[in-house]
Write a sequence for this structure.
């Protein structure tokens, strides 16, 4: 069992027979009354998200998750296909449940998928990925790193704010947890 105050983003627990993933968790102390935990949660199976509050001492059953290293092969229709690197077994995940993570995936990229028993419930991309800029405004001569930046569309469709000196065709390192530009990738 795990207390609501110990739940963090990325953790999964069981509530009323449903598998729930924590998207965001924060303590909230109103002017009067007791402290509550504000949570943004997602029902893993249905994909629906909702906001709720819990008392910090409420207890939940922690879901025992297993993680496997897999390779992203391709997307077809509304599913993404992954292959286990040891057994060569293939897994299908509905794109609707991993829409945010798909913006960081390139074919043949290694990722980790999570299992609850035999059920595939999600994936974790690497913390940083190298993506190519396919569209951005022309670079500004004399631009510095401290400028306000400009939007750049990456090869996966992800839009990231980048410094003014970045040009189309450049390879950039992107942080997948925050969806932000890190630096130019080594050539």
């Amino acid at each position: 069992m795990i207390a609501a105050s110990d739940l963090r983003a990325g953790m999964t627990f069981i509530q009323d027979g449903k598998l729930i993933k924590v998207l965001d968790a924060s303590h909230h102390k109103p002017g009067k009354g007791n402290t509550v935990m504000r949570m943004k949660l997602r029902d893993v199976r249905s994909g629906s998200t909702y906001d709720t509050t819990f008392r910090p001492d409420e207890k939940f059953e922690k879901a025992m998750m297993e993680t496997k290293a897999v390779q992203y092969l391709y997307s077809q229709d509304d599913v993404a296909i992954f292959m286990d690197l040891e057994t060569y077994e293939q897994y299908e995940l509905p794109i609707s449940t991993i829409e945010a993570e798909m913006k960081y995936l390139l074919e043949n990229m290694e990722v980790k998928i999570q299992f609850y028993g035999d059920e595939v419930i999600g994936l974790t991309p690497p913390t940083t990925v190298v993506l190519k800029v396919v569209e951005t405004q022309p670079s500004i001569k004399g631009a510095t790193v401290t400028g306000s930046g400009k939007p750049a569309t990456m090869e996966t469709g992800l839009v990231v704010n980048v410094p003014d000196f970045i040009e189309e065709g450049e390879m950039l390192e992107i942080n997948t947890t925050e969806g932000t530009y890190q630096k130019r990738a080594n050539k």
About this structure: The mean pLDDT is 81.
